[in-house]
Specification:
The protein has helices at residues 5-35, 54-60, 100-106, 113-122, 131-143, 161-171, 210-213; strands at 36-37, 46-53, 75-83, 88-89, 157-159, 180-184, 192-199, 222-224. The longest helix is centred in the first third of the chain and has 31 residues, at 5-35. With 228 residues, it is of the alpha+beta class. The strands form 3 sheets. A 4-stranded antiparallel beta sheet has the order 3-2-7-6. A two-stranded parallel ribbon has the order 1-4. Strands 5-8 form a two-stranded antiparallel ribbon. It is globular and about 40 Å long.
């Protein structure tokens, strides 16, 4: 029995689509492995302390827990993330839980239970530490970085990302320019989003990797929304 030209074209097109799909899956898999993957517990190069500017977050997510309580926050801890020179481990053991009393003790630094659960699951489980050890390290890392006075309770100000970085370096003489990355939102007039501080596994400042530096704010100026 002969095979029609249309059938041959269909089979050929289907084969090409399958190959394209498999190729896309392979590329996505490689990218995921390079940047964020299951990872081996405890195998990483350094930590990235992520400090989130709460007033900017609350402008875009006003219903969040940190935005509706009696306390108004400035910088809060977004997380302490194990990092490699290329990529980072993630979600190493998502089934391990955080004791409720430990969650409650961290609310002052990470003012949302969901944030604490997520940070432990996504990042803390890759540290090789127990939950109490990991969150004690989070607290130590946060307390080891002084918040610049001009950013402790500012009104609305407009600054360059470099000025925000320099303020952190001035308040923390141990930090180097390569240890601090300022990030911003992607709006026409960007807002300060986070300040990332790169620390070695003993929490001493070190240079951020190229991966971490890619997130730096490229805007000439950014707005620092006031604490309300």
């Amino acid at each position: 029995m002969g095979v029609s030209v249309r059938a041959v074209r269909f089979v050929g097109s289907a084969a090409v689509m399958v190959l394209m799909f498999l190729g896309a899956v392979g590329i996505a898999s490689a990218r995921h492995h390079k940047h964020a993957s299951g990872g081996a517990v405890g195998e990483f190069e350094y930590y990235l302390l992520s400090l989130s500017w709460s007033p900017a977050f609350c402008l875009s997510s006003p219903g969040s827990a940190e935005c509706n309580g009696p306390r108004r926050y400035g910088f809060i801890v977004h997380g302490l993330w194990p990092q490699n020179e290329q990529g980072w481990p993630e979600n190493c053991d998502v089934h391990r839980s955080v004791p409720d009393d430990l969650v409650q003790s961290m609310i002052g630094l990470m003012p949302a239970r969901s944030l604490i659960y997520h940070e432990w699951s996504a990042h803390g489980t890759c540290s090789g530490l127990e939950p109490r050890e990991y969150f004690a390290l989070v607290r130590r890392a946060y307390e080891g970085v002084a918040i610049p006075k001009e950013l402790s309770n500012p009104g609305a100000i407009q600054e360059s990302p470099g000025a925000v970085r320099d303020a952190f370096i001035s308040a923390n003489p141990r930090l180097r320019a390569q240890s601090v990355v300022v990030t911003c939102t992607g709006q026409d007039v960007p807002r300060l989003r986070e300040v990332h501080v790169c620390l070695d596994r003993d929490l001493s400042p070190r240079a951020c990797s190229a991966d971490a530096m890619r997130g730096a704010c490229k805007a000439a100026q950014l707005i620092v929304p006031p604490i309300r």
